[in-house]
Each structure stands twice: as structure tokens, then as C-alpha cells.
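Lecture notes, part 5. Sequence design as translation. It can be helpful to think of inverse folding as translation between two languages: the language of shapes and the language of residues. The source text, in C-alpha cells, appears below.
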């Protein structure tokens, strides 16, 4: 093999390795909240997740106890909306979902849309299904560390 060919092969291998490293598979935690389960749009939201190339690695329907919700949202303890949030999150069943894809955390938050549905972009889950800033259909981890903690709380065996 000539020198030129060896160099171009080496460059190709380097670029492929760098590409794979860049697009590393990431895990995140998603939830379909009680409002969306109650209005039976959970299936539509799961379709959106699948259509956007996420792998669903675990899913379960469950109902948060007060203690589950307080632990899950402990970062918001003391905020004016905390008690209402806990009441809402314990008001009915949710779907807890473990997701994987490249940049899963950011990609799922992008697909969810802004916390306030009035600010959510067209085509996002919250634009389509949220009815207020509290009743906003879905949850998504906001960083690698929180994704790890949330997955551990809800799917300890994963
Ligand atoms: P996020 O779900 O987009 O990450 P956070 O700021 O982490 O938003 O808030 C957690 C949840 O608390 C929101 O999804 C929403 O259900 C509720 N929430 C946030 N801000 C308010 C508010 O100002 N009023 C009522 N509920 C709120
Ligand atoms: Mg949050």
C-alpha cells in the first residue's frame, strides 16, 4: 500500500473514531406527568419519543407517593410552587421512562419544549399538550448528574 493510501486510511479511521466519541450515547430520565396520562395522550408522546430516535430502555406506570414527589423535586423545596407541584405529581399515575440516544438530555428537553407552555416552540410536547406552567405534560432531566440521580430513584435496578 502506498504512503498516500496509508495516510488517507489513518485519517478516515481517526475521523470515524472522533465521530463516534462525539455522538456518544447518553441516558436521560423522562416522565409523562399525571395531566397527560389522564387525558390519554401518553401514547402520542411515546410516539414522538420514538420518532425522534430515542431508545426506550425501561418504562413503567406508577403513582408517586408524597415522599417520592418531595424527593424527586427536592431541588425546588421552598419555592412558591413546590406544594402545588407535589400535589399535582401525586394526583394520578405517571409513566416513568428511561431513554437513550446521542445527546439524550438536551435532545429530550428540546422535544419537551419550554417549562411555560406559552413559550414552548411549535411541534414540542408542551406546546401540544401542556395546559399551564404546572400542568406541562412531561419531565426531563436537566443535566448528567440529575439524570443519574433520577434514574437511580425510579429505576434502581437499571
Ligand atoms: P422543567 O420541568 O422544565 O425542568 P422546573 O423549573 O424544573 O421545570 O420546574 C419543575 C416543574 O415545576 C415544572 O415542570 C412545572 O410542572 C412546575 N413549575 C415550575 N415553575 C412553576 C411555576 O412558576 N408555577 C407553577 N408550577 C411551576
Ligand atoms: Mg427541572
Amino acid at each position: 500500500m502506498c504512503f498516500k493510501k496509508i495516510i488517507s486510511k489513518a485519517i478516515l479511521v481517526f475521523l470515524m473514531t472522533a465521530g463516534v466519541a462525539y455522538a456518544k450515547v447518553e441516558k436521560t430520565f423522562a416522565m409523562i406527568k399525571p395531566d397527560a396520562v389522564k387525558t390519554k395522550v401518553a401514547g402520542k408522546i411515546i410516539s414522538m419519543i420514538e420518532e425522534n430516535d430515542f431508545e426506550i430502555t425501561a418504562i413503567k406506570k406508577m403513582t408517586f407517593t408524597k415522599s417520592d414527589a418531595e424527593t424527586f423535586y427536592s431541588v425546588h423545596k421552598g419555592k412558591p410552587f413546590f406544594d402545588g407541584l407535589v400535589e399535582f405529581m401525586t394526583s394520578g399515575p405517571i409513566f416513568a421512562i428511561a431513554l437513550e440516544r446521542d445527546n439524550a438530555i438536551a435532545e429530550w428537553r428540546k422535544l419537551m419544549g419550554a417549562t411555560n407552555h406559552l413559550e414552548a416552540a411549535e411541534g414540542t410536547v408542551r406546546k401540544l399538550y401542556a395546559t399551564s406552567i404546572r400542568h406541562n405534560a412531561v419531565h426531563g432531566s436537566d443535566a448528567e448528574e440529575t439524570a443519574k440521580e433520577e434514574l437511580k430513584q425510579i429505576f434502581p435496578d437499571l
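The translated text above is only one of many valid answers, since several sequences can fold into similar shapes. The chain has one domain: 23-154.
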